[in-house]
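Subject: Aminopeptidase P family protein

B.,
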Amino acid sequence: MSEVYAARRARLHDQCTAAGSAAALVSRPANVRYLCGAVPPGAVLLLGPVQDVVVATEVPSAPPLSPYLSSGPTRSEEPRLLVMPGADGDPAVAAADLAAADGADSLAVEEHDLTVARHRALGAAAPRLRLADLDRAVEQLRLVKDDEEISCMRIAGELADQALGELLESILVGRTERHLALELERRLVDHGADGPAFPTVVAAGPHAGRPGHLPTDRRVEEGDFLTICLGAEYRGYRCQVGRTFVIGPSPADWQVELYDAVFAAQRAGREALLPGRAYCDVDRVTRQVLTAAGYGDALEPCTGHGVGLEIDEDPRLTPSAMGKLDACVPVTVEPGVHLPGRGGVRIDDTLVVRPEADGGPELLTITTKELLAL
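Prediction pasted inline below.
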């Protein structure tokens, strides 16, 4: 993997040089991990004119360091690790000072990640440096995943499917949303996940289908829609799956009608995930199905999004999104409808964009999408 990280940093170096920046400071945690591997919490990466340096503060409970860090003083394929004594200093400020000491006259920073106060501190620490905006250069590098990244996401999807499948075999009636969410997260870890990819959603009855619902003490009852959305993190990479079920012997007619509409919309979105397809087109074909079924006023602003080291990353599948899909880009397709006071339906999958010649989109989450009565 050291060669992979080195190649990623080299691409970013080239982009910065072409843009006229002698050095770059990467502070967003997911971006630092993408370029270096596992590093202590709060660490930053300096791509300098002389050396690449990971700057961190002492953290007693820090995870094991990436093996792809060097303690040497000069540039090598691996960045040097500089640990600041104590926990009060700012690694970003120390990195800016180091860039100036190494002769840089400009420093590209991730302005979208920095607070105003931190940006001012960088300028004060190294007043000779011209600060430029690195913008979302690393996020753009992260869009297309390599085989190793997709393999980690594939395992994360399997872990999420496994935890969900086991829960569905247990008795659900009478248990609270909060209890079920905690059990799912425990099962994820028991099966080998680093942890949940995001706070698990368990939404029953009138809560079902509500995006981002925080589990409550409401108990599952017969006749409820039950929406579950969970994700696993594996070696830093994430994957999500969401399903909606009916509690009881059989669903009501309105539940079948709503479920069928959301399922058809989700299938249309999945089938649209081909290289060259515009982001907004994927959103449009998904949204059209639900609008035609009479649920247009209940739709959310986003049909799906990219996923990887973060659960919500580029690209965005929205009506105004600019850009087109590339092969090997993992995205979610997650249409949902929530009817206030009644409940609703969400169906979420994580897929990898593949050309038709390779079989089309690769589904990473395979829990059945049949409307199950539990």
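The radius of gyration is 23 Å.

T.
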